[in-house]
Amino acid sequence: MRSRGVPALDTAVAALIDASRVVGHRGGYLECAQHVEELFGQQFDTHHCSVTDQASSMLFRAEEVYDHLSLPVMELVTDALKHDDSCIRLKSILDPPETVELTDEEQEANGDGDGDGDGDGDGDGDGYE
Predict the structure, then answer these.
(1) Does residue 111 sit in helix, strand or coil?
(2) CA 44 to CA 19: how far, in whole Å?
(3) Fewer CB within 10 Å, N or C, the chain?
């Protein structure tokens, strides 16, 4: 499930993945070129490599952005840790209660939809309006 409301995280992770792949491809290409040079005993021209020398600096910048990313949930966690009941507070942040939506059939079986199950529609549970 994709996270919603955290586009900065999505962007930072995507940039980090892309930059690390580029560096990996460049490293692999240069390693293969080195093997070819050793095998044939002549220099292999790596100037036509489509991945530039700037790949490492792009990866460094992406890592910097990711490392300094500020997420709202981290502020909540930090605040929760300052209190004596930090475990309870952390559970409420990290494991929120499940909400269940009733189907149309379940709402009809419940009666009037006010949640008290008495069918009178006023919500007090006494069965009288």
Answers:
(1) coil
(2) 25
(3) N
- 8 residue type, one letter: A
Cα(39)–Cα(82) distance, integer angstroms: 62
Tokens representing 28 are 């692999």
pTM above 0.70, yes or no: no
Q: Is pLDDT at 17 greater than 60 in this prediction?
A: yes
The torsion angle over the Cα atoms of residues 55, 57, 63 and 64, rounded to 10 degrees, is: -160
- Mean predicted lDDT score pLDDT of the chain: 77
In the numeric block, which tokens belong to residue 12? Answer: 């930072």
Whose tokens are 């949640």? That residue is: 115
Residue 38's CB is within 10 A of a number of other CB atoms, namely 10
Contact (Cβ atoms closer than 8 angstroms) between residue 46 and residue 29: yes
Q: Sign of torsion, CA 112 117 120 122?
A: negative
